[in-house]
């Protein structure tokens, strides 16, 4: 995926209050379900402008932000000095490129529907998380395709909770749980958002 689908709207991405509220709800769900520690180094997959990580930053030591969009990364870089933890920004496609080292946890908000092979991504997550570490992955429930009004490289119209939980289990994760995280209200309908949490043994 070489095209930057967010180049034209990265600078106004956070002006959508529904988007901001949704990520706030996701962050609160993560904080409610996971025990974060000041020593932790997390990876934010599909970090965008940093809406999720800035709500997690004051609970951990460092966050590595990974996003394919240079425009989104530029917006995030402008926040770097204001964040409550150390931040590393990497522009790469995690589907085809690896990140060195392992992490205490991986967080992600509304990115998995842009991933072509979800099973392969969970296997990559498993390699990247330390034993005893976790994943906290949030995305849309299965929807009819009306959520996205423009092409942003979408491969899935949301996910069946049981199926995505099974994909995490098959990748080697344990204690897989898929819980409600948020609801995005639009004229076209209400779109539930889940949070998948799991641990690496």
Overview of the molecule:
This protein has 201 residues and is of the alpha/beta class. It is globular, with a radius of gyration of 15 Å. A seven-stranded mixed β-sheet has the order 3-2-1-4-5-7-6. The chain starts with 16 loop residues before the first helix and ends with a strand. The model has no long low-confidence stretch (mean pLDDT 91). It has a single domain (10-199), classed as Rossmann fold, CATH 3.40.50.150. The longest helix has 17 residues, at 17-33. 25% of the residues lie in helices and 30% in strands.
Task: List the SSEs and their pairings.
Elements lengths: L16 H17 L7 E5 L7 H4 L5 E6 L2 H8 L8 E6 L11 E7 L8 H11 E12 L20 H10 L3 E13 L2 E11 L2
Parallel strand pairs: 1-2, 1-4, 2-3, 4-5
Antiparallel strand pairs: 5-7, 6-7
Helix pairs in contact: 4-5
Name a few traits of the molecule:
seven-stranded mixed beta sheet, 7 strands, 201 residues, 5 helices, 25% helix, Rossmann fold
- In this structure, how is the largest beta sheet organized? 7 strands, mixed
How much helix is in the residues? 10-25%
- Counting DSSP E segments of at least 2 residues, the number of strands comes to 7
Task: Compute the number of structural domains.
Answer: 1
Instruction: Give the averaged pLDDT, no decimals.
Output: 91
* Intertermini distance: 32 Å
Strand order of the largest sheet: 3-2-1-4-5-7-6
CATH-defined superfamily: Vaccinia Virus protein VP39
CATH fold naming:
Rossmann fold
Sheet-strand content, in percent, reads 25-35%
CATH class category name: Alpha Beta
Alpha carbon gyration radius: 15 Å
Bulk shape: globular
Computed structural class: alpha/beta
Question: What is the CATH architecture term?
Answer: 3-Layer(aba) Sandwich
């Amino acid at each position: 995926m070489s095209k930057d689908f967010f180049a034209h709207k990265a600078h106004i991405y956070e002006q959508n209050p529904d988007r901001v509220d949704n990520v706030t709800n996701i962050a609160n769900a993560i904080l409610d379900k996971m025990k974060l520690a000041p020593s932790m180094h997390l990876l934010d997959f599909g970090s965008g402008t940093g809406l999720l990580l800035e709500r997690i930053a004051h609970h951990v030591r460092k966050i590595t932000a990974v996003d394919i969009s240079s425009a989104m990364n530029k917006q995030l870089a402008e926040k770097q000095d204001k964040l409550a933890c150390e931040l590393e920004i990497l522009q790469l496609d995690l589907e085809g490129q690896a990140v060195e080292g392992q992490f205490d946890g991986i967080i992600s908000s509304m990115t998995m529907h842009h991933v072509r092979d979800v099973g392969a991504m969970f296997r990559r997550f498993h390699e990247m998380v330390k034993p005893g570490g976790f994943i906290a992955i949030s995305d849309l429930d299965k929807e009819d395709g009306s959520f996205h009004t423009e092409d942003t490289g979408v491969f899935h119209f949301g996910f069946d909770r049981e199926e995505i939980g099974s994909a995490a289990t098959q990748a080697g994760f344990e204690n897989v749980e898929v819980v409600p995280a948020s609801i995005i209200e639009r004229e076209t309908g209400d779109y539930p958002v889940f949070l998948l949490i799991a641990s690496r043994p």
